[in-house]
Amino acid sequence: MLTFTIRRLFMAIPTLLFISLIIFLILDLAPSDPTASLPLTIPPEVRAEIRASLGLDEPIHIRFALWLQQFFVNEPLNLIEQWTGLTIGDGDRTRVISWQTRSPVVDIIAQRMPQTLWVVGTAYVVGILIALPIGIYSAYRQYSIFDQAGTFITMVGFSVPPFFSGVLVIVIFAVQLGWFPSVYDTTHVVVDWDSFVVQLKQMILPVMVLALQITSQISRFMRASMLDNLNQDYVRTARAKGLTESVVVMVHVLRNSMIPVVTVIALGVPQVFGGAIITEQVFKVNGLGHLLIGAIQGGDIPTVQTLTFIFAVLIVLFNLIADVLYGILDPRIRYD
Amino acid sequence: MTDLTTLEAETYQKPRNQWWDVWDQFKTHKGALIGAAFFIFVLIFVFLGPIFWTLDAQYIDIRARSQGPSWAHPMGTDQLGRDTLSRIMVGGQTSLLVGLTAMLLALVVGTLVGVLAGYFKRLDGILMRLTDLFLALPLLPLLLVIIMLFRDTLRAQFGPEKGIFILIVFVIGITSWMQTARIVRGDVLALKEREFVLAARSIGTPPYRMITRHVLPNVLSPIMVSATLGIANAIITESALSFLGLGFPSDFPTWGRLLFDGTDWLQRNPERVIWPGLAISLTVLSVNYIGDGLRDALDPRIRGR
Amino acid sequence: MKLRHLMLGAAAAFALAPVAAMAERGSDGQLNIIYWQAPSTLNPYLSGGTKEVESASLVLESMARFDSDGNLVPFMAEDIPTVENGGVAEDLTSITWTLREGLLWSDGTPVTANDAVFTWEYCTHPEGGCAQASYFDGVESVEALDDRTVRVNFAAPKPFPYTAFVGSESPIIQAAQFADCLGAAAPECTEANFGPIGTGPFVVEEFRPNDVITFVANEHYRNPDQPAFARVVFKGGGDAASAARSVLETGEFDYAWNLQIDPTLLAEMEANGIGTVVTAFGTSVERLHLNQFNPDPALGDARSTAEGGPHPFLTNPVIGQAMSMAIDRALLVEIGYGAGGQPTCNVLPAPALYASTANDGCLTQDIAGANALLDEAGIVDSDGDGVREYEGTPLRVLYQTSTNAVRQDTQALIKQWWAEIGIDAELRNIDASVFFGGDPASPDTFQKFYADVEMYTNNFAGVDPEAYMANWRCNEIPGPDTQWQGSNIQRFCSEEYDALVTEMSQTAPLEERGRLAREMNDMLMQSYSIIPLIHRGGVSAHANSLGGVRMSDWDSELWNIAEWYRIDE
User: B22 Cβ partners below 8 Å, 6+ apart?
Assistant: First the structure.
């Protein structure tokens, strides 16, 4: 398993380089333009000059090479300098600069990370924690009232898109009842109990909306996979051996049912870092999802490229983790 | 859903008496029966409904705008005075077609990739890296590129509406198969090591028959879940695409779009979100129950009971 | 509606005098502003977007700004230079500004004429890509006559010299702060771009790009009693409807910008009594451009260019006139714009001096008249499919615009009206980042105009329309040889019109300029290559507890934020 992991990690390098090239080509081919959001009163000659100052008139391979150098050489060196306080070389390196803000992309990402992790991350954890018991119990008591109600709620929950459910909870809880704020304050700092309560209050609505979607999805897979396994021969054998029902279900069946669930969960983690575009927009959380969609709409290629590349790394990484977990959950699975 | 069953029919290559068994089992599943009945009702409602309810979905009656339910407009009207009932019917045709075809496309691609990658070790690396690539692609710029490159060709070939339909189904299908592929692969990896597969292999079953007879039937339940979630996903994604100007023309109703447009009117005209929201949810729910029933019906272990 | 705003404005103005005199700096606590598009930088020279310019206007100031009526108000300058007071040279080749005495930057250092000279150098640096370079068009040099006097020299007589250093788009930046940020180095000065030192009422405390800005009152602001607010939180993100909700329904914010949502909904939110909707009109006109060249896809790369030939039917003004007559502009306003729009028949609707009244006939819808007009011209439906033919070509148009709920409603309405006069429209909406983007490889930009009709809004900055009217010269037609740059979107071309443009650039008397502008406007209107629909204004909302708001569409909406205050309840 270790050699497999190491081999896959090495394999990941050319894969990621290839993915970054494809992303770059797509972004370059896409017809959005960084000057599109400027007022029409700015004349075309000025727009051409702005584009030139962004380096857009360079040929594509030069721009890709420049991004590679900035991202893989300059940014890590800069990070090391910040951590250690040392100056490497002349200290004068161009970092990956966003076209919209004209500031280093990595700094903005670092600034956006906390709110995304707070909101989307919490929602993900909450969603999984609710989904697993629901899925397990629904399968165990298939077609019971609990199962039927769970099915109904999760399916409706999944079919209602966040652009609607977000506004619905705002209208109910922020406008009518006035319990929670409708706007997320990203500058809020938790220092004591009271400020923690404020933070909780402003997180509840977006977490609710997101967790509903996540719960729906994962509990369906959990339930289906459990159902598949509950009828297997080994379950009968385990029961026949006199194992208690909880051991049979929670140890034997659950472990064998986890493979599709682990896949779904692992696929979802990079999306946590990707933020939740619509939910972030509705509650003005302004996390990474908001950054990405804003950069796409603004034709900000360096930001989109950097963000999607980071997602790509996470996707490759978590898919690898999922593969390793398969081996642990089911030792018969071998990759060598 | 019927397409799925025919797909299964091909794979089983069995005389139809087995399918009577399946149908018998399916009939005993109450949820599945209700789901199927409701689904057929929805189909009749959206495809035959416009014959009886003849108001044009695109006709603007500006004096009747933003009205609540009445005899003239049982589901009310939108901000331009268009009749919601006829828009739900016409919108349902598009949404159901897009939802079902895009889901099927994603399912077929996802299952194919997943089974191949899980079963053949040589293909695993390359197919899973391809999956990683598709997962990493930034969706929106990709859509802009696809639409820029193909919209005019398709429009010239198939006309504006059919051309866009093909484009949307293709776009949604091609960007949502990855989860199914990963799940199916994971299950196949585990299945491959089971005794019955070993037994089948030891008697020299060729890979094609191995996959269709032994592997596929055993990964059916995650595929069914993917299918149900996939329909909801496709209907919602379509509305997002249209909203971004990448989908159907703006005066072309679909359920997702009706829901989106109605959201701002949530407080004033709640019926504008209730109807499309119900239509989407109940359709997805009915498909879910049909899937449940079908899965049970296709599982010989349950069928025997 | 309008009357109520006037009354409120008057009441606020009365209230302002005593309160402002008594108020103390920073005594009114925190002001919460929401812009649903968040500013990406606070340097308006690096990004020309409205959100960046308006947020920066809290910090950076210019010599003068335009008030809500489009009049110049001195800000950093002592007064407004004119030919009469000798500030503008007799031959119109220079303008001399005098800075207020004792004017300080927010770091406590004095503002000098050198800062203005530096600002000019900063924006006109050839490698800088300055977004506001057009404000320095025709400026030959800027010189500091002494510490407080700046002279702007023009290469040619400039009848309207209030461009450089006037309005929020061309503020004066501090030379000391930006000294190392010239040209290609401009984007590297993140700290300066995110926290410029200015003379305005507020100082940047923290800037989070595309998210939120916090400002605190400027201790060195020239008026010791202002600003009344100690802090400003400037939040971005979300959409127009949720921004309106946060001011008019939940009261979380005091001021929300650009609330282009359904007027019925906005009116209902306003009825809650928590906040008030305010509007201001500048020069923005939502219009239809009728392609004068042939956009037939069969022509390939030659479509919508001179090479592709004239449009098969839209070059006929009778058809354009009928299309214009079929539109009920008042209804479009009612459905999509509410108080934020007025029907208009002119592409140049303001200021009053330049607004023509010759075309006002279009204000009333006349479908019967349009039908009669087409029948008379022999443009009839000869094959009975409900669509008229002109010389054998059926009147089918592809009608495109950017993606925006109001625009799509407008499209649907106009499509139906045109159907009633036998013109069939296919609708298309394109993502704004593509539509307004200038990517020469994209077929969907508004400059390429691969459609028969397109709709969007344009306007001009400031109050002088000379450059704006010059957009419709023949040599401004976009085409492949100019990478599709050019402002003559509908491809209108008339030598007579070009002559008027030249005449205006050489005419100084205001009355005469007004006549020329009106004449050009009428010439465009009567060609029916452009159909103006709505004179659009800015729509914002403020909490009822916020006083002193005098919204201007000629300048930043927040131009007088120093005078805003909290009304005690």
Answer: B297, B298, B303
CB count within 10 Å of CB B162 equals 12
Strands C396-402 and C389-390: unpaired
Q: How far apart are CA C213 and CA C558, in angstroms?
A: 15
Greatest alpha-carbon span in chain C = 79
Confirm or reject contact between A328 and chain B (CB < 8 A): no
Q: What amino acid is encoded at B248 in this protein?
A: F
How far is Cα B222 from Cα A141, in angstroms, rounded to an integer? 19
Q: How far is CA B200 from CA B197, B210, B220, C419, in A?
A: 5, 7, 19, 67
Burial class (CB in 10 A: 0-12, 13-18, 19+), B205: middle
Residue B249, chain C, CB below 8 Å: the answer is yes
Task: Look at A92-101, A282-291, C214-223, C325-334 and tell me which has the smallest mean pLDDT.
Answer: A92-101
Strands (E), C187-322: 202-208, 212-217, 231-236, 255-256, 275-290
Q: How many helices (H) and strands (E) does chain A have?
A: 15, 0
Give me A140's structure tokens: 């165990």
Residue C75's SS3 state is coil
Strands (E), B160-267: none
pLDDT tens profile B259-293: 888 888 888 888 888 898 889 888 888 888 888 88
On chain B, the residues whose CB falls within 8 A of the CB of A264 are 179, 183
- Tracing tokens 């010059």 back to the chain, one arrives at C470
- Give the closest residue to C412 by CA, choosing from C335, C493, C507, C306: C335
The rounded distance, in Å, linking the Cα atoms of C369 and C321 is: 10
Q: Using CA of residue C298, residue C302, residue C307, residue C311, what is the dihedral sign?
A: positive
Chain C segment 425-464 residues within 8 A of B by beta carbon are 426-431, 434, 442-444
b/e code A29-49 from CB counts within 10 Å (16+ = b): bbbbbbbbbbbbbbbbebbbb
Gap between the Cα atoms of B243 and B281, Å rounded? 20
Of 1.10.3720.10, 3.40.50.1970, 3.40.50.2300, 3.30.9.10, which CATH number belongs to A108-329? 1.10.3720.10
B-chain residues near C429 (CB < 8 A):
245, 249-250
As a whole number, mean pLDDT of residues B120-124 equals 88
The SS3 assignment for C166 reads strand
Of A31, A35, A98, the CB nearest to C444: A31
Residue C130 corresponds to which tokens in the numbers above?
Answer: 């300055």
> What is the residue extent of each domain of chain A?
2-84, 108-329
Complex confidence, ipTM: 0.82
- In sequence order, what are the residues at sequence separation of 6 or more whose Cβ sits closer than 8 angstroms to the Cβ of residue A24? A60, A63, A64, A67, A305
pLDDT single digits (tens) B135-187? 888 777 888 788 778 877 887 788 777 888 888 898 888 888 998 999 899 88
**Are A175 and C245 in contact, with CB atoms under 8 Å apart?**
yes
Question: How far off is chain B from C381, nearest CA to CA, in Å?
Answer: 22
For residue C159, the 8-state DSSP code is S
| C102 touches C136 (CB < 8 A) | no
Helix (H, G, I), strand (E, B) or coil at C458: strand
